[in-house]
Amino acid sequence: MMHGRRRLFTMLVLIAGCDQDVDSAAVDVPTSLPPQDTAGVDLLGDTGWVFGDTGDFGGPTDEVPDNTLEMVHEAWLDARPIGGPYNAISGTLTIVEYLDGNMAVPWCYVEYSMVGDLVEDELEQCTDCDYTFSVLFTVTAEGDPSPDPETEEPNPDIGGLAGCASPELPEDDEIRTFGFSEIEQTFYFNYYGAGIWVPWYDAQLLNDELYLLWTETTGFTGVEDAEDQ
User: How large is the C-alpha radius of gyration of the chain?
Assistant: First the structure.
């Protein structure tokens, strides 16, 4: 029995010791780090970079364009000989741009004659295409496509080739090289003869006719520029 009492006494002493309150005031526990004096200390080192004045950009950026411009390029080209394989294409490419959806008065209008001959030199061909053509673009009409029937005066608000905003339109009598892939339904442009074949138009071959199409609508600020001139 003596050993059992000793163990019981020892347990009671331990419990009593744990039950004592700890005086928190007697323990110095910092609640925040003291301020560090960094005056005169180069924390990043001298990078040699000098930040200039960015200036004032005149207020918040206006992310809403003043106008929208829809650009439509469309062509119907005859492919010959009938039934293929083809060695020539010819037809008309029409460029029309509409400002803010105004279909009655286009922003600009251009018509090209397109005449293309097969490129037989393998070094100049589009390797992933079915056909490669050297195409001559000739401007056949520009500006108002429907002048007033009484006065025959064109509408001066409808621009011609120089007034179109479409990027990289052909100049009059310019020759460009294109490749047509029937599987990818794409008309590729050999970008200014650099050997880089850029997708230029969606293309479909329908009963010996090659249909080309490209459309894009973008924000536009050219109206203000035109009024300022």
Answer: 38
Structure tokens at 88: 């020539």
CA distances from 223 to 69, 72, 163, 166, 205 (A): 10, 19, 11, 15, 38
Distance CA 225, CA 57 (A): 20
Residue 208 and residue 82 in contact, taking contact as beta carbons nearer than 8 Å: yes
Give the pLDDT confidence score for residue 102 in this predicted structure: 94
Rounded to whole angstroms, the Cα distance separating 225 from 22 reads 81
Q: How many residues does the chain have?
A: 229
- Distance (Å, rounded) from C-alpha 106 to C-alpha 98? 5
Q: Name the residue among 191, 211, 192 with its Cα closest to residue 201.
A: 211
pLDDT digits (tens, 9 = 90+) for 33-52: 556 565 555 555 555 655 56
**DSSP-derived pairing of the beta strands 108-118 and 197-206:** unpaired
